[in-house]
Amino acid sequence: MATRRSYGSYDDGCAAAHALDLIGERWALIIIRELLLGPKRFGDLQRDVIGIGPTALTQRLHELETSGVLTRRELPEPARVAVYDLTDWGRELEAVNAALSLWAVSSPGLPVEAGMSPDTLVLAMRAHARPGPVGGPDLVVGLRLTDSRIESAPPVQYVGTITESGTVMARGLPPQGPAAAVEASTGAWKACIFAAVDPAEAPGVSVSGDADAVRSLVAATRFEPHPASGA
Known about the structure:
alpha+beta, Arc Repressor Mutant, subunit A, 5-stranded mixed β-sheet, two-stranded antiparallel sheet
């Protein structure tokens, strides 16, 4: 297979061009996106990045590891499985992913009906995250999402923390006694985040605890198109 020439080999010293040499190949940034919230096994990545074959995934992982964007390591006992994880430098690409997301929402061709993996949907929430109301209470909401694109997909647990200084979304279990807990498919939850559907009334969304806390999470992370889109 022929190796694509780098932009630098054409005497282009632009750092943005070099960035494209590092992460501009097909699937590269999508793989990075799926690792922004934490490490995954090869099989997890192949499941979550729909359409990629094992050969292409292996090649992209090797290239990203060689360039220092990610690393392959083994989890300690009792897991003892190999996972791929972003380096500190690689994790800085979340800002790039968020900037691309915020820019692309103005596109008239945005496939708003297409599915999203759980991590991708939560990253969209992070990209749009805003502080809670000034003087409002701090709220913690557990969010359990199942990929609606994949039959029998395992659920993934997240926790959202809303304060007047900011809203944080992370993968993991919430602390004991969250204000509310949500279980949903990514398709159903996307309707809440992208179409402002009330989570307490959305088909396919189960809310336990304080429904207003869940509404606060949606309000703090929902999709807000750029005015240039005319939406």
